[in-house]
Amino acid sequence: MSIEASDLARFYPLDKLRAENLEQLAREAQVEEVARGTVLFRAGDSDEHTIFLLSGRVRGDYPDGKTKESDASTLQGRYALGDLQPRRFTATVTSFTATIVKLDRRYLEKIQTWDQLSRAENFRHFDPAPDANRWVFRLLQSRALHKLPTGNIERMFQRFEEIAVASGDVIIREGEEADYFYVIKEGAASVSKSLETGNAIVAYLVRGDTFGEDALLANTVRNATVTMIKDGKLMRLSKKAFDEVMKPPVVEWLTPGMASILARQGAVVLDVRMPEEHAERAIKGAQNVPLYTLRESVADFDRSKKYIVYCNTGERSAAAAFVLSKLGFQVFALHGGLSGMIRQLEKQG
Q1: pLDDT in tens, 329-340
Q2: If you classify domain 118-148+150-246 with CATH, what class do you get?
């Protein structure tokens, strides 16, 4: 089953995303119709999906005997089903049938981060033209970025250099030293290798495809030749920038226990999620400063204070911690996100 972007827009905080970002998520979403009695997840589970209820009802059973009801037709039904990890309750379908929407949690976080970062006035790589940012969506799904923390996304876009290329240009040559990592923003290219029978084209690359990372990661010479077959534009990172971006961001992580101690000592706790997420559940006393407004908000921050940033999974908080540390603040990101902190506070309470 498929879903329209307009249907995704009924959910929080997806309703705040740009239309093209919603359309991208709609293309990647899994839509399932399930019967009464279906268990969507169990208390204690850790999984990769954010689940929304498109129709029907779901009961949540907590280990302590408490229950909660989620109905797609209500305001509460517009939020994700118990998205904290590990899951805090067992979710069971109670209506005759229910329709659920599953989104890859990490990819959702990356799209949300892209959406927020690209709204900044000084952001150079957002193009409002139709389909102009398609290369970004493919890039965020690429193997090269599969393990890249979302906190590095801003660093990557900051370091990108755009170059114009023409059909016939040889971008990298087999056997040469590796110097750049590339993303095709516009155009197309062929990949060829030297075989016993001669040179042969082994692949074609289109908008959003990456190349050049293998030799940089392995610190070896190029293993193929890439030649443009259409005029276009490339985004590239130098070897030095690639090494910096592909390594974990310069972020200090705190365990929930250490974060709790630091908060009691006066550290400011920042929730960098969207206001709707903050309103649903948040750490007591936390200030809500969405990631995309962070740069505009720092003028009101006290530089003598320490800051702890958090989101649901640690993805957006890594980006926020990088931004604040670059601006000279002493900042820590909460390891494990909101769920880890809540568990720690409950132990203390």
Answers
A1: 999 999 878 876
A2: mainly beta
